[in-house]
Structures are given as C-alpha cells and as structure tokens.
Records
---
Amino acid sequence: MTDVVVIGAGAAGLMCAIAAGQAGRSVVVLERGERIGAKILISGGGRCNFTNMNAGSENYLSSNPDFCKSALARYRPDDFIALVEKHGIAYHEKKLGQLFCDNSSRDIVEMLQRECAEAGVKIETKAEVTVVRHNEADGSFEIESSVGAFTTKRLVIATGGLSLPKLGATDFAYRIARQFGLSVIPGRAGLVPFTFGGEALEFCKALSGISAPCSVTITGQAGKGKRAEFTEHFLFTHRGLSGPSMLQISSYWQAPAELRINLFPEENARAWLEENHSSGLRLDTLLSRRLSERFATAWAKPLAPLRPVREYSPQQLDDIARRLENWTLQPAGTEGYATAEVTVGGIDTRDLNSKTMEARAVPGLYFIGEAVDVTGWLGGYNFQWAWASGHACGQAV
C-alpha cells in the first residue's frame, strides 16, 4: 500500500507530492500525459508567470469566497520565491507583481521534478486511471490504471479543469467528485478572449492587431459583491477582443451581459476635449493622439459628419465624452475552453475542508488546484493557488 496517490502531475499535484514526501510519506503521482507540468511549460509565453507578489483572497473568484484564505495565508508568494531562489532560477517582475522566469518555464518543471526526487516521490507518466473504488471497510482507495493497480488511504485529485483540452484537460476530477457525492459548481471558460457577431465583429476584424488602454466593467449582469473592473490594455482580434483587460473581465462575464469600456481610464475625457478645444483638429484626428489612427477613425465614424473639435457645442462634447467613457459592446460569447487559461467553477468548496482540501464526507479523498471552485486573476494568481492548495493538502495527508 502507498501512503498517498496523487492523480495529476500539474502545479498543484507536484507541490502536494513534494510536501507529502518531505513529511515522510510514500507518494506515487499518476500523470495521464507523456510529460509532467504541461500547462506550466506553455504558461507566460514559455517563461512561466509562476506567482504574483500581491496574491490575496480578493484576487480569486469562488461561490465560497472565504475558502481560499487559509491555504493562501499558509503558503505565500514569498515561500515559492524562496524555493525558486534555492534552485538558482533567475526571474524578474514584469508588471503588477507578476514574476516570470528569465529563461524558460522548463526551469520550474525541472525544479519541481528535482524536489520530487529528493522527497522520494515516484512519478508515473502515460498513466491513464480507469477505475477508482473506495473500500468502506478499511477506508482505502483502489486505483486501476494503465501502469498498474494502487491501493492507498490518501487519494488526491489534481487533474485540473476543462481549459486547454489540447494539453489533455478532461472532466476527470468532476466525475470522481460526483462519484463520491460531492457537488460541482457548473463551469465556464475563464481568462478567455471574447467573440462578436454582426457589425461588432466586422469592426474588430478591421482593427485586428491594434491595442489600446481601457478600464472595463460588466453591465446588465446581476451579481453579489463588489463590481469587477480592470484597467489594462485590450487587443482587437479577427474574432473579437482579447488582451489583459478582456481576459480578466471574461472570468466574471456571463451572457447576455454587456461590456462597458472606458477609453480614458486615467483621465477625464470631457476635460481632455476641453483642453484641446481650440486645437483646430478634427475629432478623429485629435482622438488618434490617444487611440491610434485606424481605431480613432473607426470609433468616430458613427458620429459623422466629423468637424474640428472647436465647432462642437458643450452639449455635443458632453455626449462624445460620455461615449468615450462608456463604450458598450455586446459579446456573442467567448472562445471557450480551447483557448481559456482557466475554468471558472468546479468542485464545490463547501464540501471540502479549507485547511486540508479533504472531502468532508469522504475521509482520505482530497481535491486541489484548478479542479476546485477557486479561480484566480490573470498574472500568476492561479499558480499561487496551485502551490498553496497543493502544499496545504500535502502537509495534511
């Protein structure tokens, strides 16, 4: 019998295995894919945005917002940074507390692999798990897989969510949760580009590749808590809108809500128009100083006939400023799990112990990482949840 079996060799599963192995447990990790850490390897453009120095519970979505606090408090960004520095991995802050490897994401995977080896963790790849049984007589779990059968008293599910199926994502964690009577919060794609139809799509296509700063919120969507708002750049694509601000707000968006975009996120649009009132420039030409010539021309086109700014009345300038600060668009949807970085939703955390990640009704069964209904913002937050939830679980098993 193995003390701990971890299914899934991603960020959370490997961290859990390391912590459990360091505590003296015998640990086997079963990975369905050909290699470990597949999602780590492609993250951050190949340089792995491995944490965010500002990570706190306010940076996560969940139907049970307090759940993540315990794990995040007990394994902080500084703890993972210390591990990175221990292995001599060079890194840098890109912006907003986001930490990236100087060299390659492979540095993080190799670090985790070395830590597993030092902790005596055995990793099996190409290990397709076909059956999980629970022996209620002694509380053990029997796992059948393509690499053999395993018996354990502590089973950890770390197989992630539905995002990026090309990397092998499946609903395995949800199936196991339901098998054992746990609830699953319906999922949707998060940190994902928006798609549009009709005239809005043609507008985006014509401007594909152009980027601009903005603040974006959601309008027409009922919800609890503080309104989500993100201020970063967005990017036009041939299918709709992407870029950091759009990826961030996508995790909160649900049809048929609209996006409200402020093209003057750091300045009052009306005051700016007033400052330039005597410039003699036509409206689209003036706007090209802030947006881009193509974007300014396309955005201002519905206001034709265009005139020099000084020829607009105060009321007309008020209207233009309002439009600049409240540009409203209706997405047709998102690009879905195929390009989503995360899954919003997952195993209901009310069925889990926040200190150990153990299922309340099934002693010895644990769920960690993206499989759980805890979803971080863009910028290293999801990795920090993986490290924190994996570490909490690894210390408990």
---
Amino acid sequence: MVSAVKPPFVFVHGGWHNSGIWQFVVPALELQGHFARTLDLPGAGKYVQPPQSYLRRPLQMEMFAREYSLSANITQQQRTSAVVSLIEDVVEQTGQKVILVAHSLGGLTASAVTESIPEHLLIVVYLTGFMLPPGMTAL
C-alpha cells in the first residue's frame, strides 16, 4: 500500500479522447504529492479499432460511410466496469477514497461509477462533463 497523505485522483476522458488529455495534469498533481491515475476507456485510445476503410488512402468516403464500427458495441457498462476496476485498485494501493474527475462525455461514466461504488469516492468533479438525469441517454 502506498502511503499517501493527500487524496488520490482518477481521471476519465471524454468522447473521442483518450487518457493523453491528462498528460500535464497528472504529473503536476504527483509533484504535489497526490497519487493520480488515468485510463483509456474501452473503445478509445489504445483500445480503439478504427474501420479498415479509415486507414486507406486516399480515403474512400462511400466505403467509410458503410463500414461497421467495432466500437459501436461498446456499452456504458463496459466503460463503468473499467473505471470501477481502476478505482478499486487505487483504493487498495492508497487506502483512501478517490477524487474522480470526468471530462465531457466521461461525465456519463462518472455518474454510473458513482452509483456503483459511492463508498470509494471522496468527491466527483464534472469538468464540463455531461451530468444527465437517471435513465436519460446522451443520444
């Protein structure tokens, strides 16, 4: 277990982003003595699976428009489970509740995580994040 005096952070990126958006925030917090972690949500960052037609050059728009996206099957439950798992790891490593920070569409995941494991959270920060009423989808 890491001995941390300051509360740990977990950061969730928004749609069409990845964990790289926190590349300057995490080191700054770590310099201040915080434990901070990020992740690429399922279907994003290192887990993205672009359509094959997207990688072809020149881009063939007709083919790209018709090709099925492998990311289309990613569910909110998968994103929620990924963040819950990371938070549980951070809580185990630090022995402390987590500050969860979510940007943009990541706010939907933050809300679902908060409903799943409120006992592991110190506070939830919505950084221009979606904060929808229960049952309402982003679409």
